[in-house]
Design brief:
The structure is a homotetramer of 179-residue chains. With 179 residues, the first copy, chain A, is an alpha/beta fold. At the C-D interface, β2, α2 and α3 of C face β2, α2 and α3 of D.
């Protein structure tokens, strides 16, 4: 079987984006990169910072409502269709619901060959990197560091706190089949 | 019939993005925004600035190769699937191939209720706005101003050169059914 | 006398940045662009979103504290020194204090040949453009549209609500001496 | 003596920006952050990508002309004046000319208490981080990794290739006097 989707799950500021860029550069086939961050940017104001949508608290807490979940499910169904139509997709996400998030995604990607990657980064290191980004809202990195991995099953896990993005990408690449 | 997709076609610097933001703000239902620009950002280095991918010349010319077209078709198939799964999508694009671009998109969106919007902007005004953006590459706006509309059929056309984004959005909104 | 500094004052979303880019493109001499927005970005977290620093309210209101004012004065003194050392500077600002803001700046720029430009934009148009930007915080444009001009004296005023950025820049350029 | 200026010198992708953000967060006094990158962004088109200005080659080489040097000198004189007017400034730069670049800066900052910081990062690690950034132009990181430090004298050197940004900032902070 040829790998069709690479899913990277990790907390905020764990370094997923850098790993994705390196994967795109080193994998021999063209992989497109899609992220839950892009999805959030695509939302209308009514689903951003609202109870029905996604809301970011002052201390970095993130909550997600019914309206967000409904559109997110349609978005995931669309990504699965992209892959069925022949696109290779690297998808990076933050499993706020842990195992439940993975199950929802598994249902959408049924029948596709998925490589599940856990991007682990110590809470302390992730919090430091969040500070280094200089964004105004801080506090998401530490609480997400552990919770997003709860009950999630992976094909490979990398430690982005102690390995460079390119080295993480090289490890992941060895698990990508038929490239 | 309820409008399921709003397609905005217009040249570079014609003001599509501003109109999309206003549409998202004024339409009563949640519409997500997807753009060919996001798609280009999602591409790997091998498909950006290459013969097989998309390439931007020094004078603003844009060329697109086989590799780009293949992934773009899968991307469009995915967006159609998102809509079939219940998402309302505003899609902004630059029909470099004019009527041929529209036909490709029509084939992908078959069976969906699409509102086709032409975003027209005088070449001179678009070139001035391109200068005002301050990006390093200039020259795309003027040549695209006419060519992207050649042979394309619209439900509504707006003149973003002489109307504010919000006014353009209000006009478009009157053509959106069942909101 | 040769113009050494061009100061653009206007409310949020009045289109100052676009005009600055056009001025830089059409003026025959090299002008560097500095903005109060850059200054805000340069501040440490302790002066961003705090009582002593600058704070942005939920309805778009902006308040500025003692700590902000102290550093801002040093920043302005530095810009004046750049100009005395030979740099041509376009400075765009938002005179939250109207005439008082201009007097503070005049004191810092004493002895320099300054072109004072008022960038006027109807509150309604500015509010529409704020919506078109798609930023999450809205509400600054309308209240600032009038207040930032209260009691301020200009060499030239342009109406960015009804003229393109490039046309505004061309008008301003006719007031720049010895270019 | 109280430290008035912190100068960080290091090659492209060595991690200076992240260290600056951490310094601003942990130092007890308000420090503003200025960067040669901001300066380049402030330049007009005539000094960007030109012989007289700054030009970036396809392989990551950077060249700088007379026009750039003239405005840069005025910019540095202005920063020195900001500090004399009371601002604490963290300045990050890339000493393309090594010792000669430092001498030019020393002349401008004469009489001020400067902390000179070398941000060292192995060429291989910096090149990997450049890839991880996903910017289109690559190739600057590796050649700059060594050359920018040639003949430069430091008060403290940190290894950003093997220490997190926050840890680098903590080390630097111990050299900042009177905070």
């Amino acid at each position: 079987m040829t790998t069709q989707v690479i899913v990277l799950n990790g907390g905020s500021s764990s370094g997923k984006t850098g790993i994705v860029h390196c994967l795109q550069a080193i994998l021999p086939q063209p992989w497109i990169s899609l992220s839950v961050d892009d999805f959030v940017d695509a939302l209308p104001p009514s689903l951003a910072d609202s109870d029905s949508g996604i809301a970011f608290g002052q201390q970095g807490e993130v909550s997600v409502g019914e309206g967000f979940r409904a559109v997110e499910a349609a978005w995931m169904a669309g990504i699965a269709a992209m892959v069925r139509a022949g696109a290779r997709v690297i998808l990076d996400d933050v499993f706020l619901g842990g195992a439940a998030s993975q199950q929802r995604m598994q249902a959408q990607l049924e029948g596709l060959e998925v490589l599940w990657v856990g991007v682990r980064c110590d809470a302390g290191i992730a919090a430091g990197r969040e500070l280094a980004r200089g964004d105004r809202v801080v506090g998401m990195a530490a609480p997400q560091a552990e919770t997003v991995h709860k009950g999630v099953a992976y094909d490979v896990e990398i430690d982005s706190g102690h390995a460079e993005s390119l080295d993480c990408a090289r490890t992941i690449a060895t698990y990508v089949k038929d490239n």
